[in-house]
Amino acid sequence: MGYRTALFDFDGTLADTKQCSIVATRKTFEHFGFQVPTDERIMAGMGIPLEVDLPKMIGRTFSERVLDEILDVFRNFYQESEQDTIRSFPHIPEVLSALKNSGVSIALVTSKSAAVAKRNVGQLQLGRWLDTMVCFGDSQTLRPKPAPDGVYAALKKLGDPSPDDSIMIGDAIYDVQMGQAAGIRTCAVTWGSGSDAELKAADPDYLLDRPEELETVILEAKSTSRTLHF
């Protein structure tokens, strides 16, 4: 018997948004005259809410008004690039369809705002398989990853299923740490922003290299073993 509840990160897990994030960040920094970070630094912040990571990349603190202005410019550049740069990873639609057909409840747990998450999910036509979404980007109460709040909120929306039957899937150590903090199983994936080495060091229950392996892990591979690398 596999897992009955699957919580997915979006960026780098279900969807390849790397290029969109890089382009929007570069343009935002150029717009304000900030030193443009490397692509590697931009990718390292994927999965962290923008309002937390952008000031760190810039190396300054800002008033709420100025930070909101910077975030608005970033979001505008991001939206401009979405249509041409965001794609589902291979096999993701098929995996989500198989999970739903098997009775698995599916939630999205993302650092995006609800508006952006809904727009991106709609663009990729993934919404038909999602039961609910938890979005940190516009929440005033949820602590960001790696705090367990996102998992708790998702499980509550799904009717409080057993933690033993639930799994968090993501491409960043923050996703793994969030799931661990909430007491559920975790699955790290290597096709996003996280490196194989850092994901292994986070000690997830599963470490996957190919999206099509998700179906086997979630539906069949429930195990007490640690870090099974498929």
TrEMBL record:
Q: Which UniProt keywords apply?
A: Hydrolase
One of the GO biological process terms: DNA repair
The record's Gene Ontology cellular component field reads: cytosol
Q: Name one GO molecular function term.
A: phosphoglycolate phosphatase activity
Could you tell me what this protein is called?
A: HAD family hydrolase
Source organism: Sporolactobacillus shoreae
